[in-house]
Design brief:
With about 90 residues, the protein is an all-alpha fold. The chain has helices spanning about 1-10, 15-35, 45-50, 55-60, 65-75. It has two domains: about 1-35; about 45-89, no CATH class. The protein has five helices and no strands. The termini are far apart. The relative contact order is 0.11. The model has no long low-confidence stretch (mean pLDDT about 80).
Length: about 90
């Protein structure tokens, strides 16, 4: 039984490469879209906040997200933004 699992995994080595390639292409095209073609791409803001929601999450954990957003507003002006995937409630 175990030998069948190993041999079936060896039968599709290109499937793993295809899956990895799809993930890399998705990440690359999403980054290009968010940096150049997104409607908010022309507004100033930190680089990593333009690509992911991780900076917002990072500042939410210790509870200083409001301070981070205030500092962004002071640095970039009234037009500072961050990418938000969920609606704000």
């Amino acid at each position: 039984m175990a030998s069948q699992d190993i041999s079936s995994a060896r039968a599709y080595p290109n499937l793993v490469a295809l899956g990895a390639s799809v993930v890399v292409v998705y990440i690359f095209t999403t980054a290009i879209y968010r940096l150049f073609f997104h409607p908010l791409a022309s507004f100033p803001g930190p680089f990593w906040a333009r690509l992911t929601i991780i900076p917002s999450w990072w500042h939410t954990r210790p509870g200083d997200r409001h301070v981070w957003l205030y500092n962004l507003q002071q640095k970039y002006g009234e037009l500072a933004y961050e990418i938000i995937d969920q609606p704000v409630s």
